[in-house]
Design goal:
CATH topology: Rossmann fold
Radius of gyration: 16 Å
Helix content: 25-40%
Distance between the termini: 26 Å
Order of helices and strands: EHEHEEEEHEHEHHEH
Amino acid sequence: MMRILFLQADCKEHPLDLAGEYKAIKNALLRSKYRDQFDLSFQPSVRVEELEECLLLDRPSIVHLACYSSEEGEEGMWIQDKNGKTKIKTSSFFSNLFSIVNPDKNIRCVVLNTCNCKKIAEAISKNVSCVIGQEALISDKGAIEFASKFYEALGSGRNVNNAFDLAASNLQSVQEAMTLSEKYKISRPVLKYAPGVDPSKVFLTNMPRSQIRRQII
């Protein structure tokens, strides 16, 4: 069973449609062929101090972190602390966090579905096989569409690299259909992976070997 932990981090300065993103992922998995192999859990309004505990107790295979990030040209995810104050956490924080919670490499994939998180994705990939981030800005609609297609592809038995490509292509189609007022939020998704890892050989479903070989070839 592949456990997916959806972590929602609130930012009172910039509210996002994160509940809609969770629902879209849930429905995408329900549509997929191997839906019975996935268990999606939801941790809303997670605080900075709770991140480590959530990851250690839940022991997920996939971590999906949805929150607000800094504007273009800056780096950092905006997460509230236990006192309700917003803290901006950068790549060094997340690199240290995943080095602590993932020594056995049980977490195989992290999805950062938020703006301008390429550097954070690179930092996390030192301790996680595959990490997905966004290189630029992304709208709520774009984030939801990307996540929906990615998890539907994973649940259909696609490898991480192929699922990423399908989701990125779907996001591009969504962005092409945006209105002029929306088009300033154009994202470029990125896939980072640990040294020695080939994301085209990372599968998060149990499939017959013949099907796996066809995708790799």
